[in-house]
Design goal:
Shape: globular
Distance between the termini: 29 Å
Bound molecules: NADP nicotinamide-adenine-dinucleotide phosphate, glyoxylic acid
Oligomer: single chain
CATH topology of the largest domain: Rossmann fold
Structural class: alpha/beta
Low-confidence stretches: none
CATH class of the largest domain: Alpha Beta
Order of helices and strands: EHEHEHEHEHHEHEHEHEHEHEEH
CATH superfamily of the largest domain: NAD(P)-binding Rossmann-like Domain
CATH architecture of the largest domain: 3-Layer(aba) Sandwich
Mean pLDDT: 98
Strand order of the largest sheet: 8-7-6-9-10-11-12
Strand content: 5-15%
């Protein structure tokens, strides 16, 4: 019997040997993602697809898949690029990589929070521009982090990991999420549940950790920025489209909020003529939340494990749509 065929939409930071033993592999070698039209052709002749968050997996693509197509395995925890209901309707299980990137993403969230509060990027630019003349009492001042109030929007794996790190800074921590946690967990993490509006009003730092969905699309717009303190800083390491970019520009340029640091933009990459790029009180990183060496290798291995399970007709270890098994 011939081996199943798989298409992997980019080079992965791990060894493909376990997969090579059971499947014929084609890897898209270019730095840019395969164009949609290429993917559309590929799915007609493969048994499994290993994709990234930059690949659009929609109804048309799932309909185009051949009869042997069995599994979609995404190397990411977020899966807003995939039409889940279309895949489920076609009984295609979808794998993702939860948990292994939680700490790396929470670490980057803290890196951004601290860099934004203490104006690290501005200070570096200032120094390199030869502007450091002497020690000055009011040079590059920012707010205290220790003792400040942190608001966490979306209290799942990453939101909770951010809270664990905040404990070391004696912060008052509020969270809002779809569900209130068990009191034992709240006590352990030293957090208090509140409404979204009240969190925005009380927090010195607001950090976003929800998935992107119909409910969270542009969750942050003019009204939310108006509720925030003028001294507040927004951190977004979740998905760019959770924040309305025009409203963010208005809020930052008018002083409605003090600053922001974002690892994700809408669209991605951020257009080079985006007005956001002109702001000194905004830090932007290119979607590197999970970009530690160890984390990316674990994500790749997890995505391969999901893919192999799907090819072998087994339940995926980390499945987004377990309804396909009902
Ligand atoms: P998770 O464990 O599923 O946590 C998400 C949390 O958000 C859940 O507690 C969920 O509540 C809550 N939530 C969902 N909709 C909400 C809403 N409308 N309002 C308030 N809370 C809501 O996911 P995670 O592993 O922490 O990852 C979170 C997101 O981070 C991912 O979806 C991904 O988009 C992003 N991410 C980005 C990077 C990066 O490189 N920058 C890296 C990793 C992840 P329920 O579960 O009760 O619905
Ligand atoms: C990265 O953004 C992920 O969702 O894993």
């Amino acid at each position: 019997m011939s081996q199943p065929k798989v298409f992997i939409t980019r080079r992965l930071p791990t060894k493909l040997e376990p997969l090579r033993q059971i499947a014929t592999i084609e890897v898209w070698e270019k730095r840019q993602p395969p164009p949609y039209e290429v993917l559309l052709e590929k799915v007609k002749a493969i048994d499994g697809l290993l994709c990234l968050l930059t690949d659009r997996i929609d109804l048309q693509l799932i309909k185009a898949a051949g009869t042997s197509f069995k599994v979609i395995s995404q190397m990411a925890v977020g899966y807003d690029n995939i039409d889940i209901s279309a895949a489920t309707a076609h009984k295609i299980p979808i794998g993702h990589t939860p948990g292994v990137l939680t700490d790396a993403t929470a670490d980057l969230t803290w890196a951004l929070l601290m860099a934004s509060a203490r104006r690290v990027v501005e200070a570096d630019r200032f120094t390199r521009a030869g502007q450091w003349r002497t020690w000055e009492p009011d040079l590059l001042l920012g707010p205290n982090i220790t003792g400040a109030t942190l608001g966490i929007v979306g209290f799942g794996r990453i939101g909770q990991a951010v809270a664990r790190r905040a404990k070391g800074f004696d912060m008052q921590i509020f969270y809002t999420s779809n569900h209130k946690c068990e009191p034992e967990l709240e006590k352990l993490l030293g957090v208090e549940f509140t409404t979204f509006d009240s969190l925005l009003q009380k927090s010195d730092f607001v950090t976003i950790h929800t998935p992107l969905s119909e409910e969270t699309y542009h969750l942050f717009g003019d009204r939310q920025f108006e509720l925030m303190k003028q001294s507040a800083i927004l951190i977004n390491t979740a998905r760019g489209a959770i924040v309305n970019p025009e409203a963010l520009y208005q809020a930052l340029s008018s002083g409605q909020i003090a600053g922001a640091a974002i690892d994700v933009t809408d669209p991605e990459p951020i257009p080079t003529d985006s007005p956001l790029l002109s702001l000194d009180n905004l830090i932007i990183t290119p979607h590197i939340g999970s970009a530690s060496l160890q984390t990316r290798e674990k994500m790749a291995n997890m995505a391969i494990a999901n893919l192999i399970a799907g090819l072998e007709g087994e339940r995926l270890p980390h499945c987004v749509n377990p309804e396909v098994y009902l």
